[in-house]
Amino acid sequence: MAYHVAIVGATGAVGTEFLTLLAERNFPISKLTLLASERSAGKTLEFRGEPVTVQALRPESFEGVEIAFFSAGASHSREYAPYAVQAGAIVVDNSSAFRQDPEVPLVIPEINPEAVQRHRAIIANPNCSTIIMLMALEPLRRLTRIRRIIVATYQSASGAGAQAMQELIDSTHAFLYGEPYEPKVLQHPYAFNLFSHNSPIGEDGYNEEERKMVLETRKIWNDPTVAVVPTCVRVPVLRAHSEAIVAEVEERPPLETLYEAYHQFSGVRVIDERDRNYFPMPLEATGRDEVLVGRIRYALDMPNGVALFASGDQLRKGAALNAIQIAEYLIRS
Fold it and tell me: Is 232 assigned a catalytic role?
């Protein structure tokens, strides 16, 4: 069976990744509708060797659509997802609009696929940083309960969209050639710099990105008591986020058992060659479906601590790939 699929936000960084992955994975599509803002309407994008014209997003855009991938920001999801549902579509939403709605499942298929069955026509895709962290921790969690996570992120430009990626390129060129450059997308100079994640900070001192990691972890794991202490940082990397993670567990497994669990877990690839100082890097995670995990070791002076380092493609597993995997699970079940 093939499906009428729509992509909302088709011209953005995640939207174009949807096109690549749907073709790569041979997703069964009978008709493809590409939706974006008025200024993008009329553009053509290629899918499976054929041009597809982008249409302006409107309430009536979802007639006949069966699966709608949303990747155009929370405000657009809140406004237009109900129209898609009313038209009979199942929405897989990449924004933060519905993630904390108790009626909407928040899903990483390798971790909590059973949550998909509880959907009421909307399924939420977690935040990219949460996906990469939880994929990196799932083999450990299957061996023992994780009580607390301390994580520092190294987040790439792709997480802020195509314009931020271009700003990194342009500002780096300007820096190297001694030319002035005024940031337009991010508030601080990006080339050869890093800074706290560009999301609003609350009264508790945590920004929105960090708060997402806390709340989404508790919902996906169905564990309201797990402690998560994140520090999210934007770094001058074009694509793929990295994370340094320390987890406190109830009972620390032997390292041999831990390594074996990581080698056997689908969706993770172990990169851990100490003799070559070869560990996960965003450059090598770019374009890959797996989350790369390495530096697996016991945390010093923490009796039940395990430390590791992970890199994952923010546009693929951190966004478009995870959403497509949700849809694949849907059509199989």
Answer: no
Choose the catalytic residue: 4, 119, 128, 197: 128
250, 276: one domain: yes
CATH code of 169's domain: 3.30.360.10
Range of the domain at 100: 3-125+319-332
Active-site position among 4, 119, 197, 241:
241
The pLDDT of 16-25, averaged and rounded, is: 97
The CATH number given to whatever domain includes residue 91 is: 3.40.50.720
Active site residue 241: yes
Q: Is the pTM of this model over 0.85?
A: yes
Q: Provide the number of structural domains found in the chain.
A: 2
Give the Å distances, CA to CA, from 142 to 114, 135, 175: 16, 11, 46
> For residue 106, what is the DSSP state?
B
Angle (CA) 299 246 128, round 5°: 155
pLDDT digits (tens, 9 = 90+) for 235-291: 999 999 999 999 999 999 999 999 999 999 999 999 999 999 999 999 999 999 999
Residue 9 burial (CB count, 10 A): 26
- Are 25 and 47 in the same domain? yes
Q: Give yes or no: residues 134 and 121 share one domain.
A: no
Q: What is the DSSP string of 119-149?
A: -SSEEEPPPHHHHHHHHHHHHHHTTS-EEEE
Q: How far apart are CA 156 and CA 161, in angstroms?
A: 10
